[in-house]
Amino acid sequence: METSPEILYRHVENIFPVFRSITGRGIRQTLEYISDQTTDFQIHHVASGTRVLDWTVPDEWNVNSATIRRTNGEIVIDWARCNLHLVHYSIPIHARVSRTELEKHLHWLPDQPDLIPYRTSYYNHDWGFCLSARQRAQLTDEEYDVDIRTELGPGHLSYGEVLIPATHPLNEKADEVLFSVHCCHPSLANDNASSIAIAIELIRNLRNMPCRHLSYRFLFIPGTIGSITWLARNRHILQHVRHGLVMSCLGDDGSPTYKQSRQGNAAIDRYAAHLVETRWGGRVVPFEPYGYDERQYCSPGFNLPVGCLMRSPNGQFAQYHTSADNLDFVTPAGLYASFCFITDLVMMIEKDFLPRSLFPYGEPQLGRRGLYKAIGGGDEDAGGAKFDQMTLLWTLNLADGGHSLLDIAIRADKPFAAVAAAADALTQAGLLAQRSG
Amino acid sequence: METSPEILYRHVENIFPVFRSITGRGIRQTLEYISDQTTDFQIHHVASGTRVLDWTVPDEWNVNSATIRRTNGEIVIDWARCNLHLVHYSIPIHARVSRTELEKHLHWLPDQPDLIPYRTSYYNHDWGFCLSARQRAQLTDEEYDVDIRTELGPGHLSYGEVLIPATHPLNEKADEVLFSVHCCHPSLANDNASSIAIAIELIRNLRNMPCRHLSYRFLFIPGTIGSITWLARNRHILQHVRHGLVMSCLGDDGSPTYKQSRQGNAAIDRYAAHLVETRWGGRVVPFEPYGYDERQYCSPGFNLPVGCLMRSPNGQFAQYHTSADNLDFVTPAGLYASFCFITDLVMMIEKDFLPRSLFPYGEPQLGRRGLYKAIGGGDEDAGGAKFDQMTLLWTLNLADGGHSLLDIAIRADKPFAAVAAAADALTQAGLLAQRSG
Amino acid sequence: METSPEILYRHVENIFPVFRSITGRGIRQTLEYISDQTTDFQIHHVASGTRVLDWTVPDEWNVNSATIRRTNGEIVIDWARCNLHLVHYSIPIHARVSRTELEKHLHWLPDQPDLIPYRTSYYNHDWGFCLSARQRAQLTDEEYDVDIRTELGPGHLSYGEVLIPATHPLNEKADEVLFSVHCCHPSLANDNASSIAIAIELIRNLRNMPCRHLSYRFLFIPGTIGSITWLARNRHILQHVRHGLVMSCLGDDGSPTYKQSRQGNAAIDRYAAHLVETRWGGRVVPFEPYGYDERQYCSPGFNLPVGCLMRSPNGQFAQYHTSADNLDFVTPAGLYASFCFITDLVMMIEKDFLPRSLFPYGEPQLGRRGLYKAIGGGDEDAGGAKFDQMTLLWTLNLADGGHSLLDIAIRADKPFAAVAAAADALTQAGLLAQRSG
């Protein structure tokens, strides 16, 4: 697969400035950017008030301006300068309020006095501003003029979707891999412009992949209400979701964090753990019903095999949900490492199968098939070749139809890629059954 | 539940002085004390010679007096002064014996020279005295007069039983919780006046508990032969014993020791382990076929889910089976902590069930039901509430009919009580199915 | 069982000097030695060219002489002086070759300059010499005369087999224990004259064992092609192989190494692990598809419960496959310890069964059957007897038809032999069901 750290970073730069929320112009502008970068991209619009599972699609919210001014007219807080300043879904207000009243509507971070937090109040209609502790300390006047010009009314929830069909499906109706990316946050680079960027490049590369046993579906949705809306409208698809991954916070320089699906031992969980252990480092953390849209995919009624890949995990880095999650925090190298991790996952998903030896009684004679060292008895002629020989022997020995390539890699303590290569060689030598389908 | 450390200790003081053995006047006197303290208490009498499983109810044994005297008539050892002096089931004897002969019948503790041991010989008819090593060192005369006035002959084995029926049974024939207390030891305070005291207070409190899904049965029995007799006479009940606990040595200041049932993963085993781990400290030890009446309940043919709760376990404290197991060794605080541990167990037994979400597809919208924080995106508004929120989310997420509240507590790493409270709140909000039955 | 360290060592001394390969006069001479030491020993001859599984029985190879000479006729390397000098299956050659050409056919150990390695090239027809690095350094002439007089042509592959039938079979067709010994290596004492010696003494002793529930089959075979040949000709027997052990490198002073079967939890795996843990020390290593003939027995189609016992494992001792694997490296004590380990294994194999208590409801009254201590209540009269008492109680408690004696030994943390003795005592007292069959 081909992309570059720079290409990924440029997407982030393009996406970052847009003011997004769970509905409204910003998320639609972002979806259009993704559409421009890819092909066959569909944008869905679901009307406010539509019932989706236990929820209702909310009214659409758009912001024209939001300021706090001194009574002399001087602007002290302006959403136009930093789009984190406004609590999402703030209702319109145009009033002079006392400092005491104003402070009830302010959010700041006492321990990070220079940072502006990001806050929302989607379902509890109120208004509020986010600002740094230093900015707040300077609000010493007795009264301020608050001017929030937002529109909240019937409209649409918008989300994007791409389906890249299998070229060589193993079943009549190809199973799917589901990638889910939330794109409802405003100017936060890691959370989640990073994942949008990586998803764009994955889509481009998957389209060019010559053989795909599975279909790949990408969702670009507002968090929570977006996945709930998609799930409500696509229940017939869910039985075909064989693997799934929520992508979030994938651009910083931390090591990978894979959060398991609720199932805990789904194939995607085992693949990701193998990559963490053998290649990419990082950590595997157990499922918990908090975080991103895996909460919905992994609700007990659906219980889909959907994990979540992050680098520094949500809530565990200082920049999380603050103005410090900016273009300095995300790096080309971090983005590219995430892209490569996911392409490794795709490789495992496509390559893994349950091999079955065609010569299971005793070892087949590898020598006459050119698969064995010539001189027996010593170590000196093993060297680098011994590694491959053991991988080959393990693959043959466990090719009983009950062990996947991953099972073999784990038992043999070899990288999956080496076992997959050995299985290819054995298949070409006529010793392994081809995968069915 | 209500009692007090002092009430528990007073029972021990009342029970301690009585001379008990596996049959005879002392155990009957003890059963009458328990009967006086409770209601609907039944005392059963089983005739000597009755076949019970592989055993036979022994003859009844009573002691009138037992002394060792110098040939000048001076009493040197007197059962009336300390009722541990006589080996249980000693046969009558009235004879002058040489010191050499006498010593064959003496039991003492070389390493604890001031303590008198407790010894029995129920099924091997002999006689003997227990005394301190210091007392024994003073027996320097050539001859002594031994005078044991015991009666051993046909009579009865007596045991007590209380059944507190379920108020809200989940089945037509309510399942039972079995508590078993041995009360065949003479003046040993921890082993087992302590457990008799706690059982009395449990009976009183369980009677007043407004809702009991299960019935509670308490047995006050002589060790080994008592449980064998009860088992032989109550085989039709055993299929209803869902949980059981042998109570022993529950009054000292050591931390709790829970000994698992033979099954090892019975519900009672998991409940007790959870309490040890999350609330009370102490240790869980695996089953072994030695100890108290769990040996009988956990014999392979019955294999009942019966564990054993102790504080300092049998044989592992210096006072065990000696005159130092007295009213100083048992404390009001130790007794009360044991009582509370068991009431926690009862709470878990009554409260646990397999919840099932009524909205399993996606998360139900907690906000409009008043179960979710209002402002999203930050940590500062989580605080103490976040704990509850995670418990709530875990309970919903695992409410698939395949996880008990305890399973959820373990997976979520939360106290059972918190999960039970969350399940109550969710049930009241119409999100969880009520327990059936 | 009876033998002695000296008897075992004498066999090694007798076997060591013979030049063996996978076919030819040397392996036949060795089989005749074994035949002379035992009874009912069968030697099988399989013609070259016979198809066996995926392989073909190779031509027979014999050596008359092999030398490297200086052009003045001085012998510098002579197979007659050390039979490791010739690469096995070297083709005949009689030619003057340049030093450069000669060196392509030489094998030596740079890190062990005094040792001559052992090398083979069974299926890749070539010629070669093995020599020490010091010998090689002295080959400074420009040309040498190479003279290899070998015969390679149709003949036979020979292997030996003994079946010691069960005296008290548990089934109509007695199950078998398979011992497999490779005997295709030339003068290497540990690998594998040691195992041939031990196998001879096991055969002698098993014949004299009064009660054998199982049959014992010993194979003396050339490595790889021998086991493949035997497997190809005996597929009807394989279903009766209940336990199997490859014996290799059993004479050095290292601690035992048991390599598990592919199944990993076969009875033989558990028996060997118990002996390592409780009696003999050493280590248990997992199966891998490399090593000795277990590779064939444990190929996925057969998947027999065959482990491999060694002391220092193949490839992990400095003397492995070199001239230092000689009569100094193998010791009488090492041989004898291996013999005793295997006789312990045989004892477990013969003794283990699933006991079933005839009195499973409550404990049977052990006292009246003479199986319980007389005085209850103390520790002092337990002592050594307590060990046995706990073993007895565990055996009774777990005698539910679902636990083998080994299961009981592991759960009770007692040696298997103690549990077997307890089971015997309980059977004699009428408390345990005899094993069926």
Automatic annotation (TrEMBL), chains A, B, C:
Name of the protein in its database record: Peptidase M28
Protein's UniProt keywords contain Secreted: no
Residues in the signal sequence: none
Domain DUF4910: 9-352
Residue positions binding Zn(2+): H185, D191, H321
Pfam families: DUF2172, DUF4910, HTH_47
Annotated organism of origin: Novacetimonas cocois
Residues in UCP01524 winged helix-turn-helix domain copies: 356-433
Cofactor(s) for this UniProt protein: Zn(2+)
Upper classification of the organism: Bacteria, Pseudomonadati, Pseudomonadota, Alphaproteobacteria, Acetobacterales
Chain ranges passing through the membrane: none
GO molecular function: metal ion binding
Domain of life: Bacteria
Domain DUF2172, chain residue ranges per copy: 60-151
Cofactor: record remark: Binds 1 zinc ion per subunit.
Keywords for this protein: Metal-binding, Zinc
